[in-house]
C-alpha cells in the first residue's frame, strides 16, 4: 500500500471549560488530576489496572498475573482470577442501601413504563438464569438474544453472564437472514426473543423472524424462550418454543453466580468490517468488567443520585457497556427506552428526560441532527433542567450539531463528552473527563488514562502536530476484544498487521483517520475507508459534511468520492434540507460556494445531490458505500442487510 497523506481541513478553536461548580464535585476534578492518572498508568500500567480491579470489583479468587502479553496480539488479563459480571452488577449491591434503588427505569414506546430496583432485578435475573438452565443451557454454551428494548433484554444478558453462557445479542432491527447468519456463526443452541417490539409506531414481529431464521438446517437452535411484549398472536412450536411468563412463576430465585475465569468468554457481538462477512467480536469477563466499570464511572461522572440515560439499543456495543454492564456494575440507575426518534413524537427524547429527571444523557450525533431538523420548539417546551452532563458517540459530531446540543439541550451549563471507541475496544478510549478536560466542538479530546492512543503513518511512526494519519493504540488495555469468534487469523490480520509489528511491538489499527492538534487533542476524521482523495488531497468526508451542515438550508450531508479522470476522485455531496427550504440549481451553487468559503476550493463538491433522506445503518451510521455506488452510477454492490430503510435507497436511485 502506498503512503497516503491525510489532510485535515476542519478549523475549530472554541474552547469550553467545565464550570467550577461541576469540577468541584466531579470524580476527576482537574487537568492536573487527569495528568497524574495518565502518568501513573504509563509508569506502571499493570499496577494501575490491578489497583483499580482490586478496589472496584468483587473477585471470588485473586489473579496470578495482571497481563499476559507473551503471545501478542492475544492478550490475557487477570489470569486465574475468578469473578462474575452479574454478581458485580447485582449481588454486591444488595447488602448496601442500593438494594431498593432503581436499577432500571424503563419507558416503552407507547408510553408504558416500569421500574426495577436492584433487589427486583436480581430476582428476575436469577429466575431467568434458572429457566435457561432448565432448557439445557450450560456454562460455555452460546445463547442468541434477539429482543426489543425492554427490561428482559438486560435480564437475559445478565442471566447468561450469571451462568457463564456467552450471549450474542443481535439487534432487533436486523432481518431474519442477518439473524440466521449470526446464529450459525456463533453456534447458538438457544435463542431468547419476544413476540414483538415497538419501533417507530409499529410492531416488529421478532418471533416470526426467528422462526424464519430457524428454518435453515444449519442453525443449531433447539429452544426458543419467548418474552411477551406486544401480545399479538404468535405461533409457538411445541417442544421447541416456550413462553417466559409460563415458566417465570415457578422458577426459583436462588441461582448463585457461577465463578468465571477472568478470560472466559463473556459475549460475542457482530460488527461489520469494510469487507467480508460480519466479524464476531469476542469479549471476556474480567478485563471487560473492569473497563466498562471504570470508564462509566469517570466519564459519566456517576454520583449517587444520578439518573443516567444512554439511548443506544442493547444490540450495539454502546448498549452492552453503557446501558447495562458499566452502569449496573456501579450501582447507578439506568434509563432504558424502547423508542427511536420519530416524526410522530418529535419531543420523545425530551419527554423521557423531563419525566424521569434524567441528569446524564448519552446519545448519537445522528439522533441530535434528527432532532435539530424537527425544530427547537420541541426541546424548548420541556423542562430539561435536570440535565448536568451530555455525551455523544458513534461518529464524528460536526461543530454545528455540537453547539446546538450545548445550547438548546445543555442550556450552556452541561459539559459534553464526545466519546471515541469501537465494538472492538469494549469501552470508551478517547474522551473528555467532564470535570477535568476543556472541550472543543468536534474533538473527542484526550485518551482515557491508561490508553496510549496515537496518530501514526503506515510504518507506525507518530506523525507531527496537526498532520493526518491513522488512529492507533500502542499498548493493550483490559477492555480490548480478544479475538474474532472462530477466526483468530482474521483478528491478527485486520487489526494488528496492517501496520507491521516492529521488534515484537504490536500496534492496534483502528481503521479511523485522525489528527492531533497543538494541545494533543484528537480530531477523528472518520473511517479511513471514507477518506476521499481528490486531486492529491486526502480529505476526511466528515469535514466537508460539517461545512455543508453549517449552511442554514442543510439538515444533513453525506459526502463521497466519485471516480474522476483528472482528479482521481471528485467530491459528491448528498444533502437533505431543513424545513421549508427547496432544492434548486441556485441552492446547489450556493452550497458549493459555501464549502469553498468554509474550507477552500480543494473541498468544493463537484456535484450536490438533494435527497429526502440518507441511507443509514440501523445504528445510525450513514452507509457511504451505497452512496459511492450511486454517485458512480454503478449497481449497488455488497451487503445491504444493515440498511435501516430500503425505501430511502429506492428514492435516491430514482432521484
Ligand atoms: C461505539 C461505536 C466504531 C466506529 C469508529 C469510528 C466511529 C465512534 C466516534 C466515532 C468519531 C466519535 N466513531 N465514536 N467517530 N467520533 N466520538 O460506535 O462502536 O459501532 O463499532 O463503531 O464509529 O469510525 O471506528 P462501533
TrEMBL record:
<feature type="domain" description="AMP-binding enzyme C-terminal">
    <location>
        <begin position="543"/>
        <end position="621"/>
    </location>
</feature>
<dbReference type="GO" id="GO:0005829">
    <property type="term" value="C:cytosol"/>
</dbReference>
<feature type="domain" description="AMP-dependent synthetase/ligase">
    <location>
        <begin position="97"/>
        <end position="484"/>
    </location>
</feature>
<dbReference type="InterPro" id="IPR025110">
    <property type="entry name" value="AMP-bd_C"/>
</dbReference>
<feature type="binding site">
    <location>
        <begin position="199"/>
        <end position="202"/>
    </location>
    <ligand>
        <name>CoA</name>
    </ligand>
</feature>
<feature type="binding site">
    <location>
        <position position="554"/>
    </location>
    <ligand>
        <name>Mg(2+)</name>
    </ligand>
</feature>
<keyword id="KW-0479">Metal-binding</keyword>
<feature type="binding site">
    <location>
        <position position="549"/>
    </location>
    <ligand>
        <name>Mg(2+)</name>
    </ligand>
</feature>
<dbReference type="InterPro" id="IPR011904">
    <property type="entry name" value="Ac_CoA_lig"/>
</dbReference>
<comment type="similarity">
    <text>Belongs to the ATP-dependent AMP-binding enzyme family.</text>
</comment>
<dbReference type="GO" id="GO:0005524">
    <property type="term" value="F:ATP binding"/>
</dbReference>
<feature type="binding site">
    <location>
        <position position="527"/>
    </location>
    <ligand>
        <name>ATP</name>
    </ligand>
</feature>
<dbReference type="Pfam" id="PF16177">
    <property type="entry name" value="ACAS_N"/>
</dbReference>
<keyword id="KW-0067">ATP-binding</keyword>
<feature type="domain" description="Acetyl-coenzyme A synthetase N-terminal">
    <location>
        <begin position="34"/>
        <end position="89"/>
    </location>
</feature>
<dbReference type="InterPro" id="IPR000873">
    <property type="entry name" value="AMP-dep_synth/lig_dom"/>
</dbReference>
<protein>
    <recommendedName>
        <fullName>Acetyl-coenzyme A synthetase</fullName>
        <ecNumber>6.2.1.1</ecNumber>
    </recommendedName>
</protein>
<feature type="binding site">
    <location>
        <position position="551"/>
    </location>
    <ligand>
        <name>Mg(2+)</name>
    </ligand>
</feature>
<comment type="function">
    <text>Catalyzes the conversion of acetate into acetyl-CoA (AcCoA), an essential intermediate at the junction of anabolic and catabolic pathways. AcsA undergoes a two-step reaction. In the first half reaction, AcsA combines acetate with ATP to form acetyl-adenylate (AcAMP) intermediate. In the second half reaction, it can then transfer the acetyl group from AcAMP to the sulfhydryl group of CoA, forming the product AcCoA.</text>
</comment>
<dbReference type="InterPro" id="IPR045851">
    <property type="entry name" value="AMP-bd_C_sf"/>
</dbReference>
<dbReference type="Pfam" id="PF13193">
    <property type="entry name" value="AMP-binding_C"/>
</dbReference>
<feature type="binding site">
    <location>
        <begin position="394"/>
        <end position="396"/>
    </location>
    <ligand>
        <name>ATP</name>
    </ligand>
</feature>
<dbReference type="InterPro" id="IPR042099">
    <property type="entry name" value="ANL_N_sf"/>
</dbReference>
<dbReference type="GO" id="GO:0019427">
    <property type="term" value="P:acetyl-CoA biosynthetic process from acetate"/>
</dbReference>
<dbReference type="InterPro" id="IPR032387">
    <property type="entry name" value="ACAS_N"/>
</dbReference>
<feature type="modified residue" description="N6-acetyllysine">
    <location>
        <position position="621"/>
    </location>
</feature>
<keyword id="KW-0460">Magnesium</keyword>
<keyword id="KW-0436">Ligase</keyword>
<feature type="binding site">
    <location>
        <position position="538"/>
    </location>
    <ligand>
        <name>ATP</name>
    </ligand>
</feature>
<feature type="binding site">
    <location>
        <position position="318"/>
    </location>
    <ligand>
        <name>CoA</name>
    </ligand>
</feature>
<dbReference type="GO" id="GO:0016208">
    <property type="term" value="F:AMP binding"/>
</dbReference>
<keyword id="KW-0547">Nucleotide-binding</keyword>
<dbReference type="GO" id="GO:0046872">
    <property type="term" value="F:metal ion binding"/>
</dbReference>
<keyword id="KW-0007">Acetylation</keyword>
<dbReference type="InterPro" id="IPR020845">
    <property type="entry name" value="AMP-binding_CS"/>
</dbReference>
<feature type="binding site">
    <location>
        <begin position="418"/>
        <end position="423"/>
    </location>
    <ligand>
        <name>ATP</name>
    </ligand>
</feature>
<dbReference type="Pfam" id="PF00501">
    <property type="entry name" value="AMP-binding"/>
</dbReference>
<feature type="binding site">
    <location>
        <position position="512"/>
    </location>
    <ligand>
        <name>ATP</name>
    </ligand>
</feature>
<dbReference type="GO" id="GO:0003987">
    <property type="term" value="F:acetate-CoA ligase activity"/>
</dbReference>
Amino acid at each position: 500500500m502506498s503512503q497516503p497523506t491525510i489532510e485535515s481541513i476542519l478549523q475549530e478553536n472554541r474552547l469550553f471549560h467545565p464550570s467550577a461548580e461541576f469540577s468541584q464535585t466531579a470524580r476527576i476534578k482537574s487537568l492536573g488530576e487527569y495528568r497524574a492518572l495518565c502518568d501513573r498508568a504509563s509508569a506502571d500500567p499493570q499496577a494501575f489496572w490491578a489497583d483499580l480491579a482490586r478496589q472496584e470489583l468483587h473477585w471470588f479468587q485473586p489473579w496470578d498475573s495482571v497481563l499476559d502479553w507473551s503471545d501478542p496480539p492475544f492478550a490475557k488479563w487477570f489470569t486465574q482470577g475468578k469473578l462474575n459480571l452479574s454478581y458485580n452488577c447485582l449481588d454486591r449491591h444488595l447488602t448496601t442501601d442500593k438494594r431498593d434503588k432503581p436499577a432500571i427505569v424503563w419507558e416503552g414506546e407507547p408510553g408504558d413504563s416500569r421500574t426495577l430496583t436492584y433487589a427486583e432485578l436480581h430476582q428476575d435475573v436469577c429466575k431467568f438464569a434458572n429457566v435457561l438452565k432448565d432448557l439445557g443451557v450450560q456454562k460455555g454454551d452460546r445463547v442468541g438474544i434477539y429482543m426489543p428494548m425492554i427490561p428482559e433484554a438486560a435480564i437475559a444478558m445478565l442471566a447468561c453472564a450469571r451462568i457463564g453462557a456467552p450471549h450474542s445479542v443481535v439487534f432487533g432491527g436486523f432481518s431474519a437472514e442477518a439473524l440466521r447468519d449470526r446464529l450459525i456463526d456463533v453456534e447458538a443452541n438457544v435463542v431468547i426473543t419476544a413476540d414483538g417490539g415497538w419501533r417507530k409506531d409499529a410492531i416488529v414481529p421478532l418471533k416470526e423472524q426467528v422462526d424464519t431464521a430457524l428454518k435453515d438446517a444449519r442453525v443449531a437452535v433447539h429452544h426458543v424462550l419467548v418474552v411477551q411484549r406486544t401480545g399479538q398472536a404468535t405461533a409457538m412450536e411445541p417442544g421447541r418454543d416456550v413462553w417466559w411468563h409460563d415458566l417465570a412463576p415457578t422458577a426459583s430465585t436462588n441461582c448463585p453466580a457461577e465463578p468465571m475465569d477472568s478470560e472466559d468468554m463473556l459475549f460475542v457481538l457482530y460488527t461489520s468490517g469494510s469487507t467480508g462477512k460480519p466479524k464476531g467480536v469476542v469479549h471476556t469477563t474480567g478485563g471487560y468488567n473492569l473497563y466498562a466499570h471504570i470508564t462509566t464511572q469517570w466519564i459519566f461522572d456517576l454520583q449517587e443520585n444520578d439518573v443516567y440515560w444512554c439511548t443506544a439499543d442493547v444490540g450495539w456495543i454502546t448498549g452492552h457497556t453503557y446501558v447495562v454492564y458499566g452502569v449496573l456494575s456501579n450501582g447507578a440507575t439506568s434509563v432504558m427506552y424502547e423508542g427511536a426518534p420519530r416524526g410522530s413524537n418529535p419531543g420523545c427524547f425530551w419527554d423521557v428526560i423531563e419525566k424521569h429527571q434524567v441528569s446524564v444523557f448519552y446519545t448519537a450525533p445522528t439522533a441530535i441532527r434528527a432532532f435539530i431538523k424537527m425544530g427547537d420548539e420541541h426541546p424548548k417546551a420541556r423542562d430539561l433542567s435536570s440535565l448536568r452532563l451530555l455525551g455523544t458517540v458513534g461518529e464524528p459530531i460536526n461543530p454545528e450539531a455540537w453547539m446546538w446540543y450545548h445550547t438548546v439541550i445543555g442550556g450552556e451549563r452541561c459539559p459534553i463528552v464526545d466519546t471515541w471507541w469501537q465494538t472492538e475496544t469494549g469501552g470508551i478510549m478517547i474522551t473528555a473527563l467532564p470535570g477535568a478536560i476543556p472541550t472543543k466542538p468536534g474533538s473527542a479530546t484526550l485518551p482515557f488514562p491508561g490508553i496510549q492512543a496515537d496518530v501514526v503513518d503506515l510504518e507506525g511512526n507518530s506523525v507531527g502536530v496537526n498532520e493526518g494519519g491513522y488512529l492507533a493504540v500502542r499498548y493493550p488495555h483490559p477492555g480490548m476484544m480478544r479475538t474474532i469468534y472462530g477466526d483468530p487469523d482474521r483478528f491478527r490480520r485486520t487489526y494488528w498487521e496492517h501496520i507491521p509489528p516492529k521488534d515484537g511491538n504490536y500496534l492496534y489499527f483502528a481503521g479511523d483517520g485522525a489528527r492531533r492538534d497543538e494541545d494533543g487533542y484528537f480530531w477523528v476524521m472518520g473511517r479511513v475507508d471514507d477518506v476521499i482523495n481528490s486531486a492529491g488531497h486526502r480529505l476526511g468526508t466528515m469535514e466537508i459534511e460539517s461545512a455543508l451542515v453549517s449552511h442554514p438550508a442543510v439538515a444533513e450531508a453525506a459526502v463521497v468520492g466519485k471516480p474522476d479522470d483528472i482528479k482521481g476522485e471528485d467530491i459528491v455531496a448528498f444533502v437533505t434540507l431543513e424545513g421549508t427550504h427547496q432544492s434548486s440549481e441556485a441552492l446547489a451553487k450556493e452550497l458549493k460556494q459555501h464549502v469553498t468559503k468554509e474550507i477552500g476550493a480543494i473541498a468544493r463538491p463537484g456535484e450536490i445531490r438533494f435527497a429526502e433522506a440518507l441511507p443509514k445503518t440501523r445504528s445510525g451510521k450513514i452507509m457511504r458505500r451505497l452512496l459511492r455506488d450511486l454517485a458512480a452510477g454503478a449497481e449497488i454492490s455488497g451487503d445491504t442487510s444493515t440498511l435501516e430503510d430500503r425505501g430511502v435507497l429506492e428514492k435516491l436511485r430514482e432521484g
